[in-house]
Design goal:
With about 600 residues, the chain is an alpha/beta fold. The chain has four domains: about 140 residues, no CATH class; about 50 residues, no CATH class; about 240 residues, 3-Layer(aba) Sandwich (UDP-N-acetylmuramoyl-L-alanine:D-glutamate ligase), CATH 3.40.1190.10; about 170 residues, Alpha-Beta Complex (Protein-Tyrosine Phosphatase, Chain A), CATH 3.90.190. Helices cover about 40% and strands about 20% of the residues. The strands form four sheets. An eleven-stranded mixed β-sheet has the order 10-9-8-11-7-12-13-14-15-16-17, sandwiched between helices. Strands 18-19-23-20-21-22 form a six-stranded mixed β-sheet, sandwiched between helices. α1 packs across α4 and α7 crosses α13. The longest helix has 24 residues. About 40% of the residues are buried.
């Protein structure tokens, strides 16, 4: 939970003294407040990083004997302070936080008026809630058990009615009270193997490849990705499932024998990392993507956020071609690091393997074409994987897919789950329109080739451009139409940049609006309804003028109108046509499903 208190930093010591005086006054009418007051008198308001709201809340939970739990306070601009807390007892958070805020609000009023303006009925109600707090908590013995579990790094959840769930996945049990407590001296006995994938570009592709490699062993895998969540073959959530909430929910499934989690910057910042230990963590790359959002201004800032997901990992798989990966690796013991590289020569990868846990690289022919993947350990080539017939990405194996495949192979090789029959597994890998939607997924309807892709930033769009060229050449395409929309949570300069890059991909453009995006909580004030497609159109027109061309640009109010336009336009064109639908947001499931239905012909069947 996030809370905020507006207090000028220079006034905090005096403000805190007033808060204690208010509580002393309140104690005259309710003696039970004395225990809280005792805790708060121990607080030093002059210490660095002092925050009155966080201090008041901490005093309350210490008074109640609640086990330690994560809490982080951070100062912000203009005298504001924001703090983030997690509490293992949900009702305590819901009741105790408002009590703390109310006390501080009375303090502000007391400073302004000279005394707390508290009505008797309100005070009695407030004290009644205060007295009820201890009643919603487990007993001291159970909270002591929870404290032991926390210190051991063993996952647990208070279920209420005296029950505690201990462990992850198939290794979890539910106990009542503290009777018959199973041994908790071996944390690994309560954990399932967890693999994670993070980075700026290529996360979902890598997650999918790693999932296929590990699932071949018959293990029931929990999986989160930007397009859903699964337990085994059963999809349990649709849409963007990156983040701690989804990961925590899957770890509670009694069916999960292992887990693969895609991690993103937003999920790490908002929800944290909901486990104490993971087996293998992949960091693919760190690029200047999503900068200027959530206080992340530099590539180094972004790398530090992504590194939070690596901390619990026993083994990290890192891209030696990426400078931020090399910087992050310097913070770890070399024997926990596995390097992969698509650009290093075999002898370089071999030498590197002598100083770390292992390495993975690419063996190429004289023209630079990839022939095989290699795994090195201790300066020796441990395994060679031939690449004949390996083309997982919609029938392609470009350099970007090669990087993602290499990372997945390295994670699987150095991880705890066995992979049987590698020679058969690699050619069997498939990322297609059935399991990799909106990542250059291809759908053919007669002479029209629909390509769905979510690339929205420079790095991903550069990869998309190469893929579109390959697909267009393979299908003998005569005309390309780029259909695009954007969301109001991204700054205009990013949209302008994407329009400039897409300009070189297509012969014609359709910019359609998403009316829902302007009303979202994350919408920036730069936009008003209807403004984003106009912004894109104006940039495309500038590109027309600069290149002395006249590529058609059409602006439409929504996807329904776009479907009608495309039906008519494709009928007019005839011949081989490629339609790229570029929709970056994975959270608008209904829109994405409508696009899929249109691209696969299901919409026409339904209309018929």
């Amino acid at each position: 939970m996030q809370a905020e208190c507006i207090v000028p930093a220079g006034q905090w010591p005096a403000w805190w003294n007033t808060a204690l005086q208010v509580l002393e006054r309140l104690q005259e009418g309710h003696a039970h407040l004395g225990k809280w007051l005792e805790q708060l008198r121990e607080v030093d308001p002059d210490r660095e990083g002092f925050d009155p709201l966080a201090a008041g809340w901490r005093g309350l939970v210490d008074m109640l004997g609640v086990p330690d739990y994560p809490m982080q306070a951070a100062s912000a601009a203009e005298g504001k302070s924001a703090w983030f807390t997690a509490c293992p007892y949900e009702n305590l958070l819901e009741l105790g936080l408002p009590l703390t805020r109310a006390w501080l609000n009375w303090t502000v009023a007391a400073r302004q008026r000279g005394k707390p303006p508290i009505k008797a009925d309100l005070f009695r109600s407030w004290c009644g809630v205060f007295d009820s707090l201890s009643g919603i908590l487990p007993g001291a013995a159970v909270m002591g058990l929870h404290q032991q579990l926390w210190r051991q790094g063993i996952a647990w959840q208070w279920l209420g009615e005296g029950k505690t769930r201990i462990g992850e996945g198939v290794r979890q049990v539910t106990i009542e009270g503290t009777a018959d407590i199973p041994p908790i001296d071996d944390p690994d006995a309560w954990r399932i193997p967890i693999y994670t994938v993070t980075g700026s570009v290529g996360k979902t592709t890598t997650v999918r490849l790693l999932h296929q490699l590990l699932a071949a062993g018959g293990v029931c895998l929990a999986l989160t990705a930007s397009d859903g969540a699964w337990i085994g073959d059963n999809q349990v959530a649709r849409g963007d499932s990156i983040g701690g909430v989804s990961a925590r929910a899957l770890l509670r499934s009694p069916l999960a024998e292992a887990a693969i989690f895609e991690q993103g910057r937003r999920g790490i910042l908002a929800q944290g990392v909901p486990y104490a230990r993971s087996e293998v963590a992949i960091l693919l790359n760190v690029q200047p993507v999503h900068l200027g959002v959530q206080g992340i201004e530099t590539v180094e800032d972004m790398a530090d956020v992504k590194a939070l997901g690596l901390r619990p990992a026993k083994v990290v798989v890192l891209n030696h071609d990426d400078p931020q990966c090399r910087r992050i690796a310097a913070q770890r013991s070399p024997e926990t690091c596995v390097w992969f590289s698509t650009s290093s020569r075999p002898e370089e990868i071999q030498a590197l393997s002598e100083s770390v846990l292992g390495t993975a690289g690419v063996l190429r022919d004289g023209q630079g074409n990839p022939l095989a993947l290699g795994i090195w350990r201790g300066g020796q080539l441990e395994r060679r994987f031939g690449l004949e017939g390996v083309a997982p990405y919609h029938g392609l194996l470009g350099e970007k897919t090669l990087e993602e495949l290499l990372a997945a192979v390295a994670a699987a090789w150095f991880g705890p789950l066995p992979v049987e029959d590698w020679d058969a597994r690699l050619p069997a890998l498939r990322l297609d329109s059935e399991n990799h939607m909106f990542r250059t997924s291809v759908h053919k309807q007669g002479d029209t080739v629909f390509v769905l892709d979510k690339a929205g930033e420079e790095a991903s769009l550069a990869i998309l451009q190469d893929a579109i060229d390959q697909i267009a050449n393979r299908e003998a395409v005569e005309w390309r139409i780029a259909v695009m929309t954007r969301q109001a949570s991204e700054p205009p300069k990013r949209h302008l940049q994407s329009a400039r890059m897409l300009y070189h991909i297509a012969d014609e453009f359709v910019c359609f609006d998403r009316p829902d995006t302007y009303a979202g909580a994350s919408a920036l004030p730069d936009y008003e309804p209807g403004s984003i497609p106009v912004l894109l159109r104006d940039e495309l027109d500038r590109q027309n003028a600069e290149h002395e061309t006249n590529k058609p640009v059409t602006v439409l109010p929504g996807w329904a109108e776009t479907e009608d336009f495309l039906r008519k336009r494709l009928a007019e064109l005839g011949g081989k046509t490629l339609v790229l639908v570029n929709q970056p947001s994975t959270s608008v499931h209904e829109l994405n499903q409508s696009i899929i239905d249109f691209a696969t012909g299901k919409a026409d069947v339904a209309d018929g």
